Automatic annotation (TrEMBL):
Residues 46-209 form the DJ-1/PfpI domain. This is Glutamine amidotransferase. Residues 1-28 form the signal peptide. CDD domains: GATase1_PfpI_2. Pfam families: DJ-1_PfpI (PF01965). Keywords: Glutamine amidotransferase, Signal. It comes from the Bacteria. Gene3D superfamilies: 3.40.50.880. It comes from Vulcanimicrobium alpinum.
Length: 238
């Protein structure tokens, strides 16, 4: 992607998201359909959930990958439109005090195609929202965001991973989930998980590849000057 095209696509994405927000009044059952009508054919929405203590890298990595993925045949527009979602549209204090301003709340966000859950404190609202998204979206965790996805029951009966320092705690807390130790990410079809921090980028690019193929994902990685070090491999149960 050329730098000019990148700047054009981010401007177009901002305009589309503004239209999405305008079409998503809180409490309107039809707002999601109205908001999604603003999308170009082939575009997908990526909701990145943030609550207090959200890890900056777990948000920034997915945001960068998805904002850098071009829409097929239109390098001036993005294939994914990422947005932040939280309990309220108030600023969220992320790690080291970085402020993040959600564009949507769990109550008024349009239906996403992909949901990203990084390390964070979480909330009852996040848990309920994740359960509501499960039938409709690909849900992916990064780092200890796996705990939040598991608390919502989305990993039950499936394989998942998390940050290596939390393997034992995760296995003890969620016996209905098969913890996989070692790989940077695990693909369990409608739910995926990444080990932590930069491994989230590996999973993000894998998700891009699932939707758009390896050539596009490799192109995004090249633009980011990121070396893809892992493809999916047979998981190693704990």
């Amino acid at each position: 992607m050329k730098r000019f095209d990148f700047l054009s696509s981010t401007g177009a994405a901002a305009a589309t998201l503004s239209a999405l927000a305008a079409a998503s009044p809180a409490g309107a059952a039809e707002s999601s359909d109205a908001a999604r009508a603003q999308l170009r054919p082939g575009q997908r929405l990526v909701a990145i959930a943030v609550t207090a203590g959200a890890n900056v890298m777990d948000v920034a990595g997915p945001w960068e990958v998805f904002q850098d993925t071009p829409l097929a045949g239109r390098d001036d527009d993005g294939a994914f439109l990422p947005f932040l979602v939280s309990d309220a549209r108030d600023a969220v204090a992320a790690t080291a005090g970085l402020g993040m301003l959600p564009r949507f709340t769990f109550a008024d966000a349009p239906q996403p195609d992909v949901v990203v859950v990084g390390a964070q404190r979480g909330s009852p609202g996040l848990t309920a929202w994740l359960q509501a998204q499960a039938p409709h979206a690909l849900v992916m965790s990064v780092c200890t965001g796996a705990f939040k996805v598991a608390q919502a029951g989305l990993f039950d009966g499936k394989q998942a991973t998390t940050h290596h320092e939390f393997y034992d705690a995760f296995a003890k807390q969620f016996p209905n989930v098969t913890l996989v130790r070692g790989p940077r990410f695990v693909d369990a079809e409608n739910v995926c998980s990444a080990g932590g921090l930069t491994s989230g980028i590996n999973l993000d690019l894998h998700v891009v590849e699932r939707f758009h193929g390896r050539e596009v994902a490799d192109r995004v990685a090249s633009y980011m000057e990121f070396v893809r070090t892992e493809r999916p491999e047979p998981p190693r149960p704990a």
